[in-house]
Amino acid sequence: MFMQILFLLIGFVFLVKGADWFVEGSSAIAHRMGIPSIVIGLTIVAFGTSAPEAAVSIAASLQGNTGIAVGNVLGSNIFNLLVVTGAAALIKTVGVHDGIIRRDLPYSILAAAVLLVLGFDGKLSRIDGLVLLLMMAYFMYYTFRSIPKQEEETDENADLLRPSAGKAVVIAVVGLVGIILGGQMVVDSASALAVALGVSQAVIGLTIVAVGTSLPELVTSAVAARKGESDIAIGNVVGSNIFNILSILAISSIVSPLGFAVHSLWDCAILIALSLVAWGMAVKNKTYGKIAGAVGILTYVAYTAYILVR
């Protein structure tokens, strides 16, 4: 069991550092090509922080470990909503942008609700995956349409600090390799750990794997909150949750149809209920404060206990 835990931890290191390097290299390439920062944030950074979840779920799907593939996404989304947002709010009260309240949070609830309906027959088929991908395409289209057109300011000093185009490509490629290797290590070691502990893959996916793959979101939102970047702190969570369902689970089910067990239906329903509460708080207060953050983290502790007892 010690070796499985060791390989699991090494896999998490590869995932987190790989995602960090992939975002750094890709962002530098995009800036060099003159792509606006808002586009970079909506695409490269959003993908980068969710890359560990993608690597783990797709690898698990290819190996037929559907419990890990589905549990990882649902567990990561619940962790993001309760712990990542909670940690950011404990560090500093974070404001919630009107666009997140009106568009992004409701769409994340809709995505989870559609997933619940699609999974009601006990599986996610390739057709179901295509439906989710179409929803992701519409979300991206609507998001880009909502961005006000403005001239991108050039910062020569920032350009000097960025790596050269050649170095940026190397950093991005190394990061991508790290994500792929880390994802494979996490899936293999998590599967072996589930067998050794005598628990289901879904439990491992919902807890250990979900927390490990959500570390990039946790670090990103915590740093953003400390710097007073509320939009990044909250937008990172909501955007990642939408991406996890509408892209990662979609691609995973297209690669290989996924089983959707009864307990996954319950976890999806819990995610919807928690998202509705978060949305209601945002509508009412326009912020998440320290009390809300503490309650969120304690709720996650209670949810984890429920999983283990279940």
User: Any low-confidence stretches, pLDDT <50, length ≥5?
Assistant: 150-157
Q: Which outline best applies?
A: globular
CATH topology: A middle domain of Talin 1
| Number of spatially distinct domains | 1
Word description of this protein:
With 310 residues, the protein is an all-alpha fold. It has one domain (2-148, 157-309): A middle domain of Talin 1, CATH 1.20.1420.30. The chain has helices at residues 2-32, 37-62, 66-91, 98-118, 126-146, 156-161, 165-197, 201-213, 215-226, 230-255, 262-285, 290-309; strands at 94-95, 123-124, 258-259, 287-288. The strands form two sheets. It has a two-stranded antiparallel ribbon with strand order 1-4. The protein has a two-stranded antiparallel sheet with strand order 2-3. Helix 4 runs parallel beside helix 10. The longest helix is centred in the middle third of the chain and has 33 residues, at 165-197.
What is the compact description of this entry?
The chain has 310 residues and is mainly alpha-helical.
List the helices and strands and how they pair.
Layout: H1 2-32, H2 37-62, H3 66-91, E1 94-95, H4 98-118, E2 123-124, H5 126-146, H6 156-161, H7 165-197, H8 201-213, H9 215-226, H10 230-255, E3 258-259, H11 262-285, E4 287-288, H12 290-309
Antiparallel strand pairs: 1-4, 2-3
Helix pairs in contact: 1-2, 1-7, 2-3, 2-7, 2-8, 2-9, 2-10, 3-8, 3-9, 3-10, 3-11, 3-12, 4-5, 4-10, 4-11, 5-10, 7-8, 9-10
Could you name the key traits of this structure?
310 residues; mainly alpha; A middle domain of Talin 1; two-stranded antiparallel ribbon; 4 strands; 3% strand
